[in-house]
Amino acid sequence: MSGIGLAGFHHVAIICRDYARSKHFYTEVLGLRVVAETWRAERRSYKLDLELPDGGRIELFSFPNPPARPSRPEACGLRHLAFSVAALDACVHGLERHGIAVEPIRLDELTGRRFTFFADPDGLPLELYESESQGLNAGDR
């Protein structure tokens, strides 16, 4: 065994500009479950713990006056956050019903799976990546 012994992915932390708007987006539009919501008075910040069906977590923070992201999406650091979905077309239609712009669906040339990008209320690039069971079969490529 090599490496340091990582057991898996735990969470991603996101800082938002408008807490109410982002909370609505992540809970009502994307459907993430609220695990805990904490007001931290000393930081003038909310921390919202959200959970995906597979147990992955997102921590949403509301620090006052955060600096803007340098560029999209090739700034040094986290490029984007990708969510696995079973039915890409249904997810795209759901986002569009909420008035969210979604890029055209693309095909990953390495895996044959379909994917697309959209953005959260602060412009953070988010990806929907279709699971293998719903993607193209080898004979369809």
What does this structure look like?
- This protein has helices spanning 19-29, 88-97, and strands at residues 11-15, 33-40, 45-51, 57-61, 81-85, 106-107, 114-119, 125-130.
- With 141 residues, it is of the alpha/beta class.
- The protein has two domains: 8-66, 2,3-Dihydroxybiphenyl 1,2-Dioxygenase, domain 1 (Roll); 68-141, 2,3-Dihydroxybiphenyl 1,2-Dioxygenase, domain 1 (Roll).
- The protein has a four-stranded mixed beta sheet, covered by helices on one side. A four-stranded mixed beta sheet has the order 5-8-7-6, covered by helices on one side.
- Strand 7 and strand 8 (125-130) form a beta hairpin.
- It starts with 10 loop residues before the first strand and ends in an 11-residue tail after the last strand.
Keywords:
2,3-Dihydroxybiphenyl 1,2-Dioxygenase, domain 1; 141 residues; four-stranded mixed sheet; disordered C terminus; 2 domains; alpha/beta
Distance between the termini: 35 Å
| Distinct helical segment count | 2
The H-level CATH homologous superfamily of the largest domain, spelled out, is 2,3-Dihydroxybiphenyl 1,2-Dioxygenase, domain 1
Mean pLDDT: 87
Q: Count the domains.
A: 2
Radius of gyration: 17 Å
Number of strands: 8
Biggest sheet overview: 4 strands, mixed
Characterize the overall form. globular
Share in helix:
10-25%
* Percent of residues in beta strands: 25-35%
Summing up helix and strand content along with how strands pair, one would put the structural category as: alpha/beta
User: Strand order across the biggest sheet?
Assistant: 1-4-3-2
Instruction: Give helix and strand order, one letter per element, not per position.
Output: EHEEEEHEEE
CATH topology grouping of the largest domain: 2,3-Dihydroxybiphenyl 1,2-Dioxygenase, domain 1
CATH class designation of the largest domain:
Alpha Beta
Tell me the CATH architecture of the largest domain: Roll
- Low-confidence stretches at least 5 residues in length (pLDDT < 50)? 134-141
